[in-house]
Amino acid sequence: MSPVIDCTSEEGLAEGIAAAAEAVRGGEVVVLPTDTVYGVGVDAFASDAVAAVLMAKGRGREMPLPVLVPNAQTVDGLAAGVPGYARDLIKAFWPGPLTLVLHAQTSLMWDLGDTNGTVALRMPRNDTALKLLNDVGPMAVTSANVSGQPPAKTIVDAAAQLGSAVSVYLDAGPSAGDLASTILDCTGASPVILRAGAVTAGQLQEVLGEIELRN
């Protein structure tokens, strides 16, 4: 049985981050809490580990993994040609449940799946997740469940579905978010909603102003 580490105390959090960081650096898979649901993740630049997540979830390469980042400054190292409206959305909603699909930097040596030259980025609003991201850098993270099954809202849900495919489970209690993140395609002149989620179209439009939000 892979270790489940209680991160609800200061001591447990320190132990959990150390164990998860070691696993991530070793190309292994971990489960971590986010501000939406529990996520399963790996080093974004470890192609074999990304493939292991896709296999554990029963997910094909046509559904590439999004990337969680520790801060907004990381965006320019991973994405190119970030439009001004995307930066406005980042300022308004990060950290939080908003994922932005942007053009990826062509120099990056990674394989997140069939991305068609894009990358989906988000900064979560969760202390455990941010501590791990600050330690190991950008992580490819998706919901901790087998494809087609409900997203995991507790560590028990995640472990029941993913089992020994995960090296370390970080338990921070039941997830606080009921909705997944909103996903926006920001590769064009105006953003397109790819998935409705926790940030509503109305909230987005308040920030976008005269820029049209498309569905």
Q: Considering the protein shown, what is the CATH homologous superfamily? A: DHBP synthase
Q: What structural class should be given to the helix and strand makeup?
A: alpha/beta
By DSSP, the count of extended strands is 11
Mean pLDDT: 95
CATH secondary-structure class: Alpha Beta
Indicate how many domains the architecture comprises: 1
Specify the overall morphology: globular
CATH domain topology: DHBP synthase
The low-pLDDT segments are: none
Assembly classification: single chain
The tally of helices reads 7
**Radius of gyration, whole Å:** 16 Å
How far is it from the N-terminal to the C-terminal residue, by CA? 43 Å
**Would you list the SSEs in sequence order as H and E?**
EHEEHEHEHEEHEHEEEH
Which second-level CATH architecture applies?
Answer: Alpha-Beta Complex
Main sheet: strands, sense, barrel? 11 strands, mixed
